[in-house]
Amino acid sequence: MPSAAQTRVVEIACDESGSEGEKLVGGSTDVFAHASVVLDRATALACIERVRVDARSPANEIKASVILRRQNRRVLEWLLDPAGPLAGRAHVHLTEKAFHLTVMLVGQLAVSGDRRHTAPTKVAEGLHRDAARVVGDQRWGAVLAGFNDSIRALPRSGRSVVLDPLVPALAAAVGYWGADGSRVHVVHDVQATLTPDRIRHLRVLVGPEAAERVTVRFVDSVDDPRVQIADFVAGAARRIASEAMAGRADAGLTRLLRPYVDRTSVWSEGATRRLLVPAGEG
Question: How confident is the model over 200-216, as pLDDT tens digits?
Fold first, then answer.
């Protein structure tokens, strides 16, 4: 007989910020954020209405850009506050794009050199930390861009690697909300890159047992207020993380964001990770 947890259903509404598909360097964003929230529609609508009033926004669909305006900082602080509407109801996975690409590069080199015993993430840590210092930012950037372009040029059907951070981030959300064995129903903003092949890859990443407990459906964010809240969280997290990575960390906002951040976020070791990611598995 299934346990209570195995029969429990958690419906998570998801959205992302910073997606440029498999273009991980040389684009317009250096951080990818994927947010998931567990809210009922009434709570989400009430939250959006509070944002609309406090931010004085006439827009039919309020986007994350509204709460990120300097004059609306108090609205963002209210959303992320430990006593606010999202405490315990929202989660976000962060990906440092250049580091993610470095991990992929090391993984491919390890396979090519028949060194599968080597942990790519550990090797990538050192490479990510030292390469630019040794050869210069421009040369190391060119190496990453060249690898990025070469993988993107391969037919997707014949690849052994998927660069897009969206699927691993979604798998992390499923793992977080379904950690107790609950069935996880994903309601995701329409996303062209989440093809049937990518959904199959998601099921591989979460493992056979969890795969049986996961469903995915797509909605237009304008039709689901919960997805709009996920957009708020993803957009805010990406901006806060990107500013921290650039050496412009906002102490107040990073402190508010940190409890929501997934411990398995793909982020290199160092001061910025300590600011953003709770201690634990990385």
Answer: 999 999 999 999 999 99
